[in-house]
Design goal:
This protein has 152 residues and is mainly α. It is 79% helix and 0% strand. It has five helices and no strands. α1 packs antiparallel against α2, α3 packs parallel to α5 and α4 packs antiparallel against α5. The protein is globular, with a radius of gyration of 17 Å. The N and C termini lie far apart (48 Å).
């Protein structure tokens, strides 16, 4: 339950930070760096920790690392496209807010799962959904970037 709350607080803090910078006209040249880098670190830490929480299979940690690396790749592709002059595509199906929604729901369901004596299956399923969704997101973003760059 605490993890679900912490994930949502992280998203609210990120949202507020961006709104203050944009709405308050306080953007700086380094704003993108200081906005994006902590997001990537937080994503990786949260997803890897979720993987290490899985103990019922031997590959739980690897699943967390895979989800984290795929999440990092979605951001990398978005930023690489922008560096090539394309639009920054924040589309999913597994963009940051989607990943965190899936993991928040999984944390809440995992509390129920533990109450009935089963553990870690929901977190495992969530990391699988996140990983597959990140692959779909990568394909979707790459297609958009390639089309946009080739059209220009």
């Amino acid at each position: 339950m605490a993890a679900a709350v912490a994930i949502q607080l992280r998203l609210v803090a990120n949202l507020m930070d961006g709104m203050v910078a944009i709405e308050g006209g306080m953007q700086t040249k380094l704003g993108l760096l200081f906005n994006d880098l902590p997001d990537r670190l937080a994503d990786a830490l949260i997803l890897v920790a979720a993987g290490y929480a899985i103990q019922w299979v031997r590959w739980g940690a690897e699943l967390g690392w895979a989800a984290a690396l795929l999440a990092l790749m979605t951001a990398y592709v978005r930023l690489l496209g922008a560096a090539m002059g394309a639009t920054q595509w924040f589309i999913g199906p597994m963009a940051k807010q989607h990943r965190m929604a899936v993991l928040t729901a999984a944390c809440l369901l995992a509390a129920l799962e533990a109450a009935i004596g089963r553990t870690e299956h929901v977190i495992t399923a969530a990391l699988m959904v996140i990983s597959l969704g990140c692959v779909a997101t990568l394909v979707r973003r790459l297609r958009r970037i390639i089309a946009e760059v080739q059209a220009n």
